[in-house]
Design brief:
FAM91_N_dom; about 0% strand; about 110 residues; FAM91 N-terminal domain-containing protein; mainly alpha; elongated; FAM91
Length: about 110
């Protein structure tokens, strides 16, 4: 991902506020920018609220489910900074993730 694009995502720039050179690097495609926003947010385990991803994904629960799936598939640590959402909203605890991961690796 382009560092300029990442910078503008991190700063919560909506598509209409992006500089022309950044839009051009994305092929002038708002849809492409939204894909980058989603991927960046999931990779960095960002909260849904107060971030640009809330304008791209309307379903908060689905976003967190995608985030957990990505984290699990890429062997990332449990997102403890999101535990208030994970435990209360999705009912996913670190122990549950550990059990799922160990169960999958022990099968032959």
């Amino acid at each position: 991902m382009n560092t300029d694009v990442e910078f503008h995502i991190r700063q919560n720039y909506p598509w209409n506020k992006l500089p022309a050179n950044v839009k051009q690097s994305l092929g002038n495609s708002q849809r492409e920018y939204e894909k980058h926003v989603l991927l960046y947010s999931i990779r960095n385990q960002l909260r849904f609220r107060n971030n640009l991803v809330r304008h791209v994904r309307k379903d908060e629960r689905k976003y967190y489910e995608e985030l957990l799936k990505y984290s699990r598939d890429h062997l990332m640590l449990y997102p403890y900074h999101l535990s208030d959402i994970m435990v209360k909203g999705l009912r996913v605890t670190p122990v549950l993730i550990l059990c799922r991961n160990n169960g999958g690796h022990n099968e032959q």
